[in-house]
Design brief:
alpha+beta; globular; 2 helices; 119 residues; Trna Endonuclease, Chain: A, domain 1; 30% helix
Length: 119
C-alpha cells in the first residue's frame, strides 16, 4: 500500500478514536455511493454527522482541511443524502472535517464542526 494510503488509514483510526471519546456512535466507515466516499458516518444525539478525515505529515503547502474542495464537498453531500434516504432516516445532518497533522512523532487533531458552512 502506498505511504499516503497508510497515513490516511492511520488518520481515520485516530479520528474514530477521537469521535468515540467525544461520545459519537460510529455507524459506517468508508461508506461508498457511486464515485463518492464518506470516511466516517457517525451519530451524536439526534444528529447524523458525515466526517471527512484529512491527514497530512506536513502543513508546508496547505493545512489538511484545505484539501477539501468544492467537488469533494458535492460528492460527500451526495453520498450522505443517499445514505439518509436509503436508511429512511429523519435526522439533522452535519458535515465535519477532522484535520490531522502527524509530524515529528506528534499528532495534532482539529475538529471542524459544520465545516462545509465555512467554504
Amino acid at each position: 500500500m502506498a505511504q499516503h494510503n497508510e497515513l490516511g488509514k492511520e488518520g481515520e483510526k485516530i479520528a474514530i478514536d477521537f469521535l468515540l471519546k467525544k461520545g459519537y456512535k460510529i455507524l459506517e466507515t468508508n461508506y461508498r455511493y457511486l464515485k463518492a466516499e464518506v470516511d466516517i458516518i457517525a451519530k451524536k444525539g439526534e444528529t447524523l454527522v458525515a466526517v471527512e478525515v484529512k491527514t497530512r505529515s506536513s502543513d508546508y503547502f496547505e493545512n489538511p482541511q484545505d484539501a477539501v474542495n468544492d467537488k469533494k464537498i458535492k460528492l460527500i453531500v451526495s453520498a450522505t443524502d443517499y445514505y439518509v434516504n436509503d436508511k429512511d432516516l429523519d435526522v439533522e445532518v452535519r458535515f465535519d472535517i477532522i484535520a490531522i497533522l502527524i509530524k515529528n512523532n506528534k499528532t495534532k487533531i482539529e475538529h471542524l464542526e459544520d465545516a462545509f458552512l465555512h467554504f
